[in-house]
Amino acid sequence: MLKSMMKCGFGLVAASALWAAPVAAQEPYRLPPQEIIDIVDAAPSPWTSLSPARDTLLLMHREALPPVAELARPMERLAGLRLDATLNGRHGPRSVIGLSLVDLESGEEREVSLPADAGISSTSWSPDGSQIAFVMTRNDQLSLWVVDVERARARELVDGGINAVFSPLGWMPDGERLLVSLVDPERGPMPERPRVPSGPVTQEASGYEAPVRTYQDLLADEHDAALFAWLATSQLALVNTTGRTRVREVGEPGLYYSAEPAPGGDYILIGEMEQPFSFQVPWYSFPDRVFVTDLDGDEIATIARQPLADNVPIGGVVTGRRSINWQASHPARLIWAEALDGGDPRVEADERDSAWALAAPFEGDPVEILRTEDRYYGTQFTSEGQLGFSMEYDRDTRVIRRWLVDFADPSVEPRLAEERNYQDSYANPGSALSVRNEFGRSVVGVHDGYMYMAGDGATPEGDRPFLNRVSFDTFETTEIWRNSGENYEEVIGLTSPDASSFLTRWEDPVTPPNVRWHRSGEETAEITDFANPHPQLNEISRELITYEREDGVPLSATLYLPAGFEEGDTLPVLVWGYPLEYNDTSTAGQVSGSPYEFTRVAGTSPRFLVTQGYALLENATMPIVGDDPETVNDTFIHQLVLSAEAARDVTVEMGFGDGERLAIAGHSYGAFMTAHLLAASDVFRAGIARSGAYNRTLTPFGFQSERRTFWAAPETYFELSPFMHADQINEPMLMIHGQMDNNSGTYPMQSERMFAAVKGNAGTARLVMLPYESHGYRGRESILHVLAESIDWLDRWVKPVEDPMGGGEEESGSE
């Protein structure tokens, strides 16, 4: 009997398995429709950067997607980094391939002549804006170049041997010299992995808490440690950029991860890793010390020494001196923070942090500047004396406070400049616009008693960027300019200190971002005229919609409808989302984005599906609301389902959806959301989950905003693992994952085991593992393949009027 049942059932299983069979094989890359290929291959618009002198715009020209062959270059995965040993820098394809300069007054654009096949990175303006330094990648080496802005000419300063494992260059305050990291000239040949290991790799626990996140690309053995040290060891040098080029070495080689000249130019603050390294944490948690040298490399003072940081509480900070930086408004003064609560956010404390300062010659006792009720997150200095805005943040309430602090006289009572919920976008006062001070440092500009703030201007109708004038004395705010009309325009920077002239980036749904110059009493000048790279999408409609879920939480999404859509048509619908946690309904329901932004379609954007006849609800909000951040995830799945049902219902109410042909999709935490919704509801016919994590027991020391460990809340970890509910996923799910994903928690194994779980429980699924791709996908072949897979999957399972799975008669709702 059993044998006959198996024979009868085999035909059904075999029919559904035909499409799944290639999962176990190597398939050639596939292509989407030609119209999509043309869009993917269109060169993107240049990046722009305004000079410190405010008279020149730098255009950084980019190329379309690199081939997978560039991603396939040999890679060393060490200490949480991905390195190219041939280049002695970070692994990855180039993006910027050319430079040009636009004079704001005349509008003239001048191309900077560079060698063919050059890749450009680490681009940096000199303090006065007369030069631009950058690293060039060419012929398997990294070299240092500088552009003379006045003549738009580039020349090579160092013809190879730049060490770009960490920051490769920085300007000295005089604007005539660069502090550069070079490869250690005495390091010898690259270490070779021994054929026979010297012994086993061992680790040991010593009875103290060490809650380590699930990091990837860590050191695996002593060979990895030796190779990392070989690559990371650098020789600091000062390089003249004017006159005859001269390179002068500074001190001895070391494992330097940072080197920053003092604002006055007489000292260098250096961060150095110390051995032995750890196999359990990335490089930034290795033992280290921070010290100061003079320009000859002679050590002046050790400022801090930190042991291995593997016992930092979840959401906490190290004890002792941390975040050590130069005070931007002083020639040679260091500032740092120290925890007053042992660095543990679980400890109840009236004051969590203190900020300190110590000036050259770095002897004697430091000066305590202020204490904060919550965690200190740095200071943004101003052009007024030694005044700076210091920020603290409460992780429980998500409240931020900014205080105006006098670092010259700590006895002066700090003044509160801002206090709000960090997620309250409607109350966001924006960011202060900066200027260069006498030391060439970027600081908040204050002119005639006023500073200027620019922001997104979030409103219930969408973003409306603004420019405000704010009294430095009273913080009273006056609006100078605000975006209006059926376009989106945001401030780039001021071109006059009193904001009588400023640059904006302007766009509308069919026009890509271009730079405009606003000048008081004059017509607005168009500085750039970048063409639409994909005009064939101009007929796609876009609308910001709002709706509400059953429990009263307001939701929003951007609705895209294909060209030719007519009222009365019903379309298959793709819902693209990403869950976020909130303390209250008022912030959870706030609208973000603008219906007037340019309809960018690039990479693996879900907007490509609109070209294939789908309606798209992009960034459909999926808020998880709870007043207790420790337990907010206890209702995660229930709230996800409520949001999904509301998204389905609004498609029917607006008339473009039939309530049946819906798909859910997302990336990373959005993939996690997708798997949950397919398991816990029948709202969607199918799903696409990209680069997700599905088994939370593999991330036992927290994930996303979850603060509890697995051992503190095992039921939550079980319930919030889609892997545990794989037997309930009865809709088709396409899973895509980069084979070299380095994002914390989203190991490629997560998708492999999730696929096996769905398959083992007779579910319908397909798994696509992309060679050489990480958490986000970059190779041209990969991008096109993901789009082809996604279109084919939705065309098969969602687009047909009749449900191919035969589930059209089932009642939708949560389980």
From TrEMBL:
Q: Which residues form the Peptidase S9 prolyl oligopeptidase catalytic domain?
A: 647-799
Q: Does the keyword Hydrolase apply?
A: yes
Q: What are the protein's UniProt keywords? A: Hydrolase, Signal
One Pfam family of this chain: Peptidase_S9
State the Gene Ontology terms under molecular function: serine-type endopeptidase activity
Which positions carry the signal peptide feature in this UniProt record?
A: 1-25
One BP annotation, GO? proteolysis
Query: What protein name is recorded for this chain?
Result: Glutamyl peptidase, Serine peptidase, MEROPS family S09D
